[in-house]
Amino acid sequence: MERVHSPRQGGERGTRRPGYLAAAAVFTVGMAGMTLPTPLYGLYRAQIGFSELIVTVVFAVYAVGVIGVLLALGDFSDRVGRRPVLLAAMALSAASALCFVLEGGLPLLFLGRLLSGLAAGLLSGAATATVLELAPEGRQSRAGFAATAANMGGLGCGPLLAGLLAQYAPWPLRLPYLVHLALVLVSAAVIRRLPETARRTGPAGPPRPPGLKVPPQVRGVFTATSLAAFAGFALLGLFTAVAPSFVAQTLEVANLAVSGAVVFSVFLGSTAGQLLTGRLGTRRSLPVGCLLLVVGLALVAGSLALRTLDLLVAGALCGGFGQGLGFRAGLTAVGRAAPADHRAGTISSFFVVAYTGISLPVVGVGAMAVWLGLRDAGLVFAVCVAALAACVGLYVLRRPPIAD
């Protein structure tokens, strides 16, 4: 369906509207809510009483929400406009926060995580497009930086904020969500003032799934790059689901702010990796990213074996950097290789594989932790994901999927 773009900084006559930096700030707030519970899972375990397996399942429900939105509403903001979708994402994020504020057991935890996944699925595409489309001429590169930093930086800020508030402020299981809820309300007010950058010219019609079909001519590129994304997102899933338990149980560090900072470090590394992909080049970024991911996982395994926090932080930064390099290079490769009439579906398929990686492996860690213990389960995870990343890295080094 055809659409036209409104002016970059359009709005009512004589009124200055917020620009791409305001949209990036909204993006950051929204993504922070997705990882807010991460350092608090140990408190929920003590209060409600459940196993490490349930922790990982609660976390994985988030990915179910994201994948569901990707499958059902792939291009919805292109047809109904950016602002309605952004407001819907913020409404879902607020509802998720309220679930955690009112939490009285597992049902509301599951519902809160599902709502946050739905919000993330809506927010990621619409917010990225808004940031890029609001950038004035000559600042598209800065806008791309802002969108990347808002996405991964927001995911990293969530556990950092929750850990600091839970450790040093009252109401550890309520205050982080109340603070986020206030930020969401402010963000909704900002969204209402943002210029609309996508306007439909006809009726929106019902949501249309983008069609998760990978054309035959893309499958070679898709297989290698999506497996690299799977491995990288598995690392992110490990840190956002069970790293605080590693810190508390294996490394015997009870400070929740430290747990939040450890999780923040993996997203910091990912942001840096994505930002430097352009300088390194997409052809080299994929094998280098896989190599750094292997090194990062080796450091994580070393931290568990030696019970050393410094190695865990180093593994988070190194592995996150490799994940960022490989993910952006893989996304670029898939986007360039896919025919125009199948590009949306191919990219959506790529994200589905990536978000499967953030959920299924960590559920496996939770299951293994029941009978192996969390430390040994983490070591098995690190070895398996490192082996996958190494195989993909060697393959793309011999057969590069894309030329710069």
UniProtKB/TrEMBL annotation:
Q: Which InterPro entries match?
A: MFS (IPR011701), MFS_dom (IPR020846), MFS_trans_sf (IPR036259), MFS_Transporters (IPR050171), Sugar_transporter_CS (IPR005829)
- What keywords appear on the UniProt entry? Cell membrane, Membrane, Transmembrane, Transmembrane helix, Transport
Which compartment or compartments is the protein found in? Answer: Cell membrane
Top-level division of the source organism's lineage: Bacteria
Record has Translocase as a keyword: no
Among Pfam families, the record links this protein to: MFS_1
User: GO: which molecular function terms?
Assistant: transmembrane transporter activity
Boundaries of every Major facilitator superfamily (MFS) profile domain copy: 18-401
The entry's cellular-component GO terms read: plasma membrane
Q: How does it sit in the membrane?
A: Multi-pass membrane protein
Q: What is its main location?
A: membrane
Q: Which residues cross the membrane?
A: 20-41, 53-73, 85-104, 110-132, 144-169, 175-191, 221-247, 253-276, 288-306, 312-335, 347-371, 377-397
Q: Which PANTHER family match?
A: MAJOR FACILITATOR SUPERFAMILY MFS_1 (PTHR23517:SF13), RESISTANCE PROTEIN MDTM, PUTATIVE-RELATED-RELATED (PTHR23517)
User: What name has this protein been given in UniProt?
Assistant: MFS transporter
Q: What organism is the protein native to?
A: Streptomyces sulfonofaciens
